[in-house]
Amino acid sequence: MAEVVGGFLMPHNPALVAMADDSAQAHTVRGAFNHISQRLEALEASTVIIIGDDHYTMFGPHCIPSCLIGIGDVEGPIDEDFLRLKSGRIENNEPLANHILQAGFADGIDWAFAKALAVDHAVAIPHHLAVKALPGVKTIPVYLNAGVFPVIPSRRAYQIGQSILRAVRSWPGDDRVVLFGTGGVSHWVGYAEMGRVNADFDRRILAMVERRDVEGLLALSDETILEQAGNGCLEIKNWLCAMGATPGAKAEVIVYEPMPQWVTGMGFAELDVAA
Amino acid sequence: MSTGALEKLFWQIHTKPEEVKRYCDDPGAYLRDFRLDEDEREMVLSWDVGEMAARGVNQMLLQFAFTAVNGMGKHGEYIMKLREAKKTASNSEDEKDLPWLRS
Fold first, then answer.
1. Span A78-114, pLDDT tens digits
2. Measured CA angle at A160 (ends A77, B57), to 5 deg
């Protein structure tokens, strides 16, 4: 029987791979990805579900899915020039991804799905920094719309996580699944405030994560998040999805670094299912 | 107002490098392929990003398109244009209606 064995929350800031930065903060946040990679090994993870959001790059005004799962070929990053990261194949777990899709339909989740998907940095960077080096570990990409209004409601993001958990638990394979909720915390992308970091708000979010105050996080309106922490912080919807799939997990902050030079508050946490 | 047409234009420029060249070769001709009002054409040609943001154009996409056409070196100019537009708005409107200015 497949099981969810853990979860992690992390940024997917392009600066992680695109910026030549030898600062102590840069070492700290890159080290956090190494830590997550080591934890994946310790958890004997076989599949990572990376939850990200498109940055108006994969999907255009002609079609913007609210929630999408990649069930076939996956490659990326699609924005490789910007990232200075060579695009390549990402090994999917197609049987499990298809099962999550079908189980989601039965569960009331109107997934969009992709049979051939080129992912952007939201999935490609966490994969590159934490998963790629681990032999045999597969990646299922999930995209929630947190970047183009109207964005997915936070509660729906959480419910999708719950549905993913039910799907994994009903899968007869022996997969050991870990979820990555990616993005955030405060950052303003393309706004006048770009470069600002609201560390107080970020720490408040991380404290709510540690307390597992899901209702508190769900109660944060999109308007409040936008005002306090920018459009980039709407990506905590991806975090909520991962939290929905890891009920009862002990959440612990790995590291937080406010990095205005990277225009982002960089927050990491583990959702420890075994604790 | 047709933010959908503006976003279609900007998405095309952002995701297809060959479209940037077509745009730069003759911006006026290029824009005729999109269902833009005259004032929207003028906003694009003058890169009035503050007004386009105020009209609801996705600002992440707006930034990508601006830098695709004008170069990453002009990113600071993009931000300054937005900040200038905000200052103008704050001088002409009750600040209570602009909570983001107080944070």
1. 987 778 899 999 999 999 999 999 999 999 999 999 9
2. 55
Q: Convert the pLDDT of each residue in A24-41 to its tens digit.
A: 999 999 999 999 999 999
Hey, what are A199's tokens?
A: 């560390």
DSSP conformation letters of A10-78: E---THHHH----SHHHHHHHHHHHHHHHHHHHTT-SEEEEEE---SSSS-TT---SEEEEEEEEEE-T
Q: Would you call B2 helix, strand, or coil by DSSP? A: coil
Residue type, B46: S
Instruction: Kindly identify which residue of chain A lies nearest to residue B4, measuring between CA atoms.
Output: A61
Q: What residues of A are in contact with residue B59 (Cβ under 8 Å)?
A: 189-191, 231
What distances in angstroms separate CA A61 from CA A121, A145, A189, B40, B58, one per listed residue? 19, 13, 18, 17, 10
Single-letter amino acid code for the residue at A155: R
Nearest CB neighbour to B62, from listed A60, A149, A190 = A190
Distance CA A95, CA A79 (A): 27
Closest residue of chain B to A149, computed from CA coordinates: B58
Are A55 and B62 an interchain contact pair (Cβ–Cβ within 8 Å)? no
Å between A193 CA and nearest CA of chain B: 8
Q: Check if the beta carbon of residue B68 is closer than 8 Å to that of residue A190.
A: no
Residue of chain B whose alpha carbon sits nearest to that of A196: B103
User: Percentage of residues in chain B with pLDDT exceeding 90?
Assistant: 81
ipTM: 0.94
Give the separation between CA B3 and CA A152, rounded to whole angstroms: 20
The pTM is what? 0.95
H/E segment holding residue A144: strand A138-144
